[in-house]
Structure formats: structure tokens, C-alpha cells
Hints:
The structure is a single chain. The protein folds into four domains: 56-164, Trypsin-like serine proteases (Thrombin, subunit H, Beta Barrel); 179-273, Trypsin-like serine proteases (Thrombin, subunit H), CATH 2.40.10; 287-380, Pdz3 Domain, CATH 2.30.42.10; 398-506, Roll (Pdz3 Domain), CATH 2.30.42. 21% of the residues lie in helices and 31% in strands. It is globular. The chain has a seven-stranded antiparallel sheet. It has a six-stranded antiparallel β-barrel with strand order 8-9-10-13-12-11. Strands 15, 16, 17, 18, 19 and 20 form a six-stranded antiparallel sheet that branches. Residues 1-39, 92-96 and 399-405 have low confidence and may be disordered. By secondary structure, it is of the alpha+beta class.
Amino acid sequence: MRYAYSVTSALLLGGAAISLATGYPAGAQVAQNDDAHMARVVPRAGAPESFADLTAQLQPAVVNISTRQRIEIPQQGNPFAGTPFEGLFGNRGQQQQQPRFQEGQSLGSGFIISADGYVVTNNHVVSPNGRGTVEEITVTMPDGTEYQAELVGTDPQSDLAVLKINRREPFPFVKFGDSAHARPGDWVVAIGNPFGLGGTVTSGIVSAVYRNTGQGGAYDRYIQTDAAINRGNSGGPLFDMHGQVIGINNAIFSPSGGSVGIGFAIPAEIAAPIVEKLRAGVEIERGYLGVNIQPVTEDLADSLGVERNRGEFIQSVQPGEAADKAGIQPGDIVLKVDGKEVTPEQTLSYLVANIRPGTTVPIELIRDGASKRVNATVGKRPSEEELRQQQFDPDADQQDDIESNDSETIQESLGLQVLPLSPQIARQLGVGAETQGVVVAGVDPNADAARKGLQRGDIILSANNRTVASLEDLESTIRSAQADKREAVLLRVQRRGRPAQFVAVRLR
Length: 508
């Protein structure tokens, strides 16, 4: 029965193929004089009957990448802390506060780009999640040979990373191709390590080029493909029919978690220059205007009387940054940067990020319905951590906090995650830019600080009557209190819409 059904399916598919090839439905009568107006589509010579030869040449350069990570486990505090029973069990409560760790792993794909063993992959394949550290990176060749890899460089913004492996014999390698000439409908082949199964090959076509997924950022600009890409394919190559890498598999759209035929790859024209800089140890600098933007939607375009899908709308301008100095204002619509159109496929973020900091460029915009031109000297884009700090949301889930800015002394002693109080965060919290302090980004629910009511968005102004202008100031006060064998520190805390008040928080 299975064979019978498959033959039936094949016949139905064959009929559909004939219908498409002739340009009109099977069985329809078409006048002979219409033939001259019929579009003739002829497949390009060389369409593959098999990808086997191409795969055999490319697969030796595609590798599996695994990491071993050390992940800190959040600890439960002493349930009797702050009560008469706190010391009932001796030092057990203190022992519970000692950090504990567990081993974690990640798995992905990559490809070798040089005979001396440089490997390209995604940053998220080799970077830890949460409070972990990567202790070991292993690159496994298709024949099962393993090599310990050195992390040469990472670029979180583009999600790219470069590794290095070594041996006496030269490695097989592949080269970047020209993704700028990729077209929807072109054949592509993806090779990677989905679900840890080892080298797996899938084929498909380019579904779209320069696809904007709506996630934002300077590099939300992908090749979309229907070649099956699943978990573990991250960092693997997307090849054209010349055997060149035109994309680096990065993400999928999937309600189920598996491939549904919508995969995204970082275009080679974006990846190759970044990879070269990471390989050479060159700092990657990107341009920055200092604006918050949104696309010109249909409703927004109608309200402003402008064309949809043309330009981007300026929601806000950061004081002192390049846009502010150039006279760009909230409500402006930026149409061109340095003569290049701002479109959904070529966003303002992308255009500006690819301008060298310090370069002065003309910017064309619309303000109050009138065209205007300004010159902006592009600044240097802050790090991803600094950008997230500028967008601090006191009502967001504290699990999204920026771990790299946490102080171990403050975290362990007070149970608080804190961030420097930048002018941007100060505005979001409703205090003046001149306010000095540190902002609470997260509170351990088992700490005395939580019992005393401290919460995300609170500003610590002083500790033990010493002004707190930085994380280091708060750390210094904590250490002094510990040296004096004090069991608590007195914090002066400012909360939005309320007067500052003093709160005594026990050290742990």
C-alpha cells in the first residue's frame, strides 16, 4: 500500500510539473496566436541531479563544535536569617552561601577557512549563558578526530566568532563567496550538526535576500533559505553551487522548535570582513548616531503624510551623541544616509554601523513635512552591555539583567545586582542626570535586601553615610563594614516618586 500511494503521489506531482512547465493548466485550450505572448522559462544548464560530488568536496571542512561550561547555581539563603534562630544550626547557613557550580555544554557547527586551522562559527555557540564560563572548546572533524580550540575573537553584535586549531598537516578549508549576487531561487546546500547527529547535508533554495526579521539591531539582515536548518546547525556554512560560503546559518523561525523551511543565514558580505578583523585581532568599531528608531508603518506613514517603507522614524535622541549634535530631532524621518536609501532591507542601523566613527556624512530627512539635510559626525557604537544599560526597564524581568556588570562583593554580601547610574537610566527612572548612585537591577529573594523591600529600579545613593557614585564606592563600604565586623550596612535608597529613605540591610 505504501508503494501504491507513493506512485500515485509521483504521478500527481508529475502532472503539476507539466502544468508549470507549459505555462498553462493541463487540459486548457490556448489559441496558437497566444504562443508569442507566452513567457518561456528554461532551466539554467547545470541544475544538479545530485549534490553528492559537491558535498564530498566540502564536507571535510565542516566541523562540529562543543563546549564545556562551568555554570554557577543560584543558592538558597539561610531560611532563618534575621530571626532568633539564625545561628541555631551553626555554620550551615554560611555554607549554603558558598557558590556551587554545575557543568554545562553547548553544541553547534563551524567551518575551516584556512589551511592553518582558523574556524568560523556563531558567537552564541561558544559563549556561555547566564553566569557561566567556557572552560573548554572542542572541534571535531568529520572523521571523528578532535582538537582543542583556542578562542581567537568574538563579536556578539554580529554573532560571529573565530577559533584556532592546530596540527602539522594542513586542514581542508572552504572560502567565502559573493552573497551580494545571490538571488531568490538559487540552489544552496547547508552542512552542519543538527541535534548532535554529526555531519548532515540539506539542500534548498534562497527564499529571500536581505531579510529583515524585525528583531532590530545593525545586523538584522539575513539570507532566508528553505534548506532544513535545525538546532545544532548554528555556525555551519550555507554553500552556493560553486562550493563557496555565501552565508553562516544562524537562526530559524519555528513554532515547533524544528525546521519548518524558514532558516536565516548571515550573508558572507557581512561576515567575511568581520571574520578577517577577528582573525587579525583588530578592534571592530562601528558607527553610532544615538537614536531610537522604528520603521515607517502604514499607520505612521498615513499620520505623517509620507510614503510607507521609506525611511525610519526617530523616536528619541540621546543627548550629547552624534544625532543630537547634528540637530536631528524626535519625529524626524531619516530617508538617506551618505546618499544611500533607508529601506527595510537596508536599515538606518545597518548603514550607520558600517560607517567609520569620526566620519562626517550627509543625512536627508523629513521634518514637519519638509525636506531637510544635516551633516552628522558619526560616533563610536557602545558595546552591547552599554546599549542595554541605556535601555534599562525597571519593570522588566530581572533575569534579563546584565551579568557582566555585577560585582561579586555586592552580590554575595547584599544579594543585589547593581549597575552604574548612567544619564540614560536616570532619565528612565525619573531622576535628574546629576544624580549620583548605583541602580538595583536584581534582588535575590532570599536576601535580607528583599525582606527589607528593595527592588529593581531602586537607586542606592549612599552606604553608611558615604556617597555611592560607583560600584567601587559601594564595594569599598561593604569591605570596611566587614573589616569592622559589622553585620549590616545602612543604605540610603531613592525610589521613583518617593523621597529617599534609609534602610539597614544585613550582610550575609
